[in-house]
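Q: Entry one of two.
A:
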Amino acid sequence: MKKLLVEKSEGIAELIDRMLAVQDDEILLVIPKHAALAKSASNFRLLKREADSAEKRVMVESPDETVVSLAEENGLDIYRPAAEKPKSAPEGGTEVSDIVLKAEEHTDVGRRRKRGASIRLTVHEEREEEPESSEGAAEEAEEEAPEEHGANRNFFSERFFKSRTAPIEPLPDEEEESASRNNDEERGSGGGALKWIIGAVAVLAIAFYLTTSVFGHAKVTINFTKTPWSYQANFIADKNASAIDPTTNLIPAQVFTTDKNITQVFPATGQSGTVGVKAQGTITIYNTYGPAQDLVASTRFVTPDGKIFRLANDVTVPAKPGSITAPVVADQPGPAYNMGPVPKLTIPGFQKIPAKYAGFYGTIASGTTGGFIGTRPTATAADIANAKSKTTAILQADLQSGLAASYPNNFKILDGAMTTQITKIVVSTSTDASGNFSVFGDATLSAIGFDEAAFKAYLLSVAQSTEASSTFSSLTVSYGSVHADFAKGQVSFALTAQGALEPIFSPADFAASIAGKSIADARSTVAALPQLSNGTISVWPVWLWNMPGDAGKIQVVSN
């Protein structure tokens, strides 16, 4: 039989690998105290299973009773060596341990080893009168062992002594073993039911915990007593004021301005007649001469083939090297002035100064269009008046929508504190090929506004002078008698305010103050609120006895 010494830290997988590598069919495992294998009974079950699968008989020897107990419980044979000689033994005396198998066990050890049955061994100690060598004992055991035991006989002749005085402890027979197995199965069935009950209770406990701790929430509804409040006064919003003056009711104001210009096209309804229309285009004027140069409207520019175009407006050409674009109109009506790009036009007025004449020139990159002589509808006086009125209305609407986007949302511009100034309306009565004429308009909008949010905060301070620790639950303000002085940047108005006051209350802070409290304590906290009209607390699930510990799971509604 092969002896394997097991290390204290050796794991079951490593031990099984070593066991399977041994060629012998019988193996003795020597396991020390406090070995890692003793930490779990499953290690010995695995050991037994692998030994049976490999058709190896495994015995265990250990001074550790825990190891011995676990090995026996899992069907492994226990090897108990001869006891040590007592100190009181006479000199020359010999103490031996006789360990033998029961006869029926010895003859059927292979069969029992196959089906995992454990073999009980009985240790008997006695003092022999005369020392006997292990070789003699082995020969004696070998002589008495039946021949049909084969390998088992050799094993016991080498390792054990036959019993001399004490009887052998009997093993249970097959019926007793069967009954024992049946009892184990019944206990296993009862244990399975118990495990099922424990599992069900655990699931219910987890569900209860999740419902209570994770999904539990509460809602607190609080209604305060409202105190009516009203106020009337006259105010002046002034652009020169820096703060609200309660003694004069002067509040800061700001003046907002915006500009807009548009060109609108309208159909001419007058009787058709012969008309001449001059071509138009855009010229870029370059200065390669020197200082900046002013050019008046109607300044001539000449093309290489002698056609003349004139500036439509006054311009100033920047100093060298500078350039500017400006509209030009043909000197004569007709389609002859409808031209493609012109690379260079000169200024005849500078011919007396050659360097200046060469240093100033123009380029028409996109050509000119619109030149016409023929019959077209003409614009009547009614057409022109209607076109001016519509252009003005369009300008005002565009300016107002543009103004709304130009000042902060918290500012208030009262009706009557806004004005639009039309700075230019120019009508071109010449009709195009479709019989339309054009109107150019330019306008400026001015408005005086004040910070309404800051103004309402001032009204709250007025209310708190009589109702301390209160805030508006509602507030409605109306403005009347509005008069604006745009030159001074002022607007005066009459104010009428009506509202309701309630105690200052923070739902978030209140939720934090009752988080984790018992329902009874939370109710007491609600009842202690000043000017309380009524309040309710609802929780889910209904069996909650405390408010959620997380304030985020408490919804507080104040009405």
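Q: Entry two of two.
A:
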Amino acid sequence: MTAHDLLFELGSEELPPVTLQALSTALTDGIVRGLAAAGIGHGRVESFATPRRLAVLVRECAEHAAERTTERRGPPLAASVGADGQPTQAALAFAKSCGVEVASLDTLRNDKGAWLLYRGREPGVETRAVVGGLITAALAALPIAKRMRWGAHAVEFVRPVHWAVLLFGTEVIAAELLGMISGRQTRGHRFHAPGTVTLASAGEYAAALRRAKVIADFAERRRVIDKGVRALAAECGGRALIDPELLDEVTALVEWPVPIAGQFEERFLALPREVVAATVQEHQRYFPVEAADGRLTRWFVTVSNIRSSDPARVREGNERVVRPRLSDAAFFWEQDRKLSLDEHAAKLAGVTFQTKLGSYADKTRRVQALAESIGARIGAGDAVGRAAALAKADLMTAMVGEFPELQGTMGRYYALAQGEPPEVAAALEEQYLPRFAGDALPKTASGQALSLADKLDTLTGIFAIDQKPTGARDPFGLRRAALGVLRIMLEGGLDLDLALLLEAAAAAQPVLRPATAAEVHAFMRERLRGLIQERRDGTTPEMIDAVFAVEPRSVLDVDARLAALREFERLPDAAALAAANKRIMNILKKAPPSADLAVAVERLTDPAERALYDALIGVAPCVAAALTERRYADALRLVAGLRVSIDRFFDEVLVMADDPPLRANRIALLRDLRLLFTGVADLSRLPG
């Protein structure tokens, strides 16, 4: 089958850098899905994205889809042949609709009957005929929050579109795409090669643009920037601090990257390191440079989109624009320290946390009470109360107003500046940890308590006002908060009663809903399920269900029970015991409720039921002791020792005996056995 490279490029004004990669990925995925739906085969698919273009190159794309076999079921066979053996009108009409004679039809037979059947072959669609439509569909499905119109066009896109390329090998496929008629002309670098670039074929796309000073491949451009920035920083005697997100953003801003080094005044190094880094990175999109000892230097590296004939002027321009930013930061640093954190905190009463949940001062009071309660359980000492009282104070500082990402961090600096104990200062920053998946956790007990209290207050408060996450929408970051709580408890080894803490947090909210604590608990259990499954340590979904069924109140306790279940699953008797549990549960479901659940020893008339009772009584105290000490693996091994007695009981004893007292006694025995088995987990939920 003949195949050619297929190229689509959309040229526009500068695309939003933060969403460039997402747009590129979505466009590629949309085109690939469209080709698959049409049955068009192809080879490797390459994506390209720069500030001014999105492109997809499909290698070895077939000229048309493969032929497809089609089948149509006709009338029942009984209604297709008349008494004279000739085709009926129904058979003739069906054959005509298929374009064949009745004699060419097949017969379909199965256990439900027999019918006439048409089998035919349908030619595959021509790629040239459908590619414009599938690209239009892919463009319409791009994740663009707000589309715009331009000029007299009725079409909408994230930015005005200026050209479109659609090549199939060397041939142009004419199509109207976002108001542009596709052709073979792309455009080079806005300054170095501003004219049009005529593409002879789809396959030469990347090379042709490189000659026009455009590195079209996002990943390649990113590598070039990373390597260039690191090399230039090394020439300056330091090491570039390259944040992956900033690297992505800079890559999305340039087409022909040229690293340039610059410096700022020494006096700005007296500012907190994070302030300098935030100014350089967030405001200017520069890469700071640190010395071998880890201290920041005066150097930074920026990435220009042009290779200037006068690099010194470019460097001076970048140095000139960063200076007022750092001067502002220095001013904020001086002004903020003129007030104590207590004075800053006093302003929180005038700032709303959430309309129905009160001000930040209200939240501070709730968090302080909960943090002190948690702190008492984990040995945090008096520092936690002081830290909680000052937790949100830095929100009122000018520095955090300018750099919101420094909340907590500036609280730590201001606390140390006014002589607060180191643990108080550390807790002010640690309250926000972890900020994202895989982030560091609080190290101090006060930080752990404050972080937990803050997140639990937010979770229960937002659930109380019925603003829980729905689908992809989570404006208050409740999923992140829940995962943070769980990680702190799990990785920090904090044996806390999560249900009790949620009840306390919910009870402190100004909006009281009886179901709040339970709803948040269920929400967090699903996050815990995800955390556990990500570990890939052999824990199965059935194990998690089995442990959740007995409702442990501590996250650490859940983990300990799961570890015991993983060990239990390796026992030879595990599957048989799980099956026995299912059988016991099914019997108990059908048994009538009884007020008298105690086993009457004198009614144990069968040797097998007496043997099971004796084995149960013998092992129960040891199991109880193991459960109390959370030696769950030991408890399960003890329970596993009952298998022989259980098997004999079910082989020799009729539980649902005709004699009501005898039946009730045997049911009571099974209830006791079931309670013993569910001490660690509901084993009936395991495969068996």
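A: Comment on entry two: The chain has a mean pLDDT of 93. The longest strand covers residues 3-12.
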